[in-house]
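Shapes recur. Our protein:

. . .
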Amino acid sequence: MKAQTMSARVSHSLIDPIISPKLQSLYPHLRIPSGFPPEGIVLMGHLSAIVGAVGLAFSTTYWWAGIVGAAGIVGNHLADCVDGTHARRTGQCRNGGELLDHFTDPLSFAYYLIGIGVACGRLDLAIVAVVCLFAIAVLTNIKAKLVGEFTLSRFGPTEFKTLLSLIGISTAALFWLPQSIVTPGQFLLFTYAALIVAGLVQLPIQLIRSVKEVNQNGAAADTTEWQLK
């Protein structure tokens, strides 16, 4: 959902221009009542994310769980694509809806990462993954506030959701491969560890770039004192 006071939005996403317009084009076919609040769509998307996380958590136990995980992630992204469309077309754009949308997004990703950690039996890795996730999310939001531009990188939320969906489907497929050289659990643990390593490598790089960018393009530094009331 869009708000008038929101920072300018710039997306460098590789696949978002391909996937998101197609999902947004489904909006007329969903027949969402005009009086239905966009916040309700955000909530439905969040519930779908929980379903996806639960599916991922059982993806090494039941073959169908990985499919459920992928479906939940896709449902979450569909809601994320149409909530703003619904808000604009029905004249229900609200700052509260914008806040709710951005509040639930990182939580959804946290659910997915925890779900995979449960499936792998590695909650220690899940802690590292979630800390890294929220560090990147906080960095992105603070930079947006300072430079007035909310920027999504080439590997952004859409790419991450797509990758997680493919991981869920691939884990399910491994149950059906005869004499597979890798078990679903081994595959999931390997991809999980690779994701975490990639995140830990990217975090300091993004931090350094963000500090340079806010110094160069941000507004004048805030020199005011805290007002104690």
In short: The CA atoms of residues 45 and 76 lie 4 Å apart. The chain has a mean pLDDT of 89. The two ends are 34 Å apart (CA to CA). Residues 184-217 form the longest helix (34 residues).
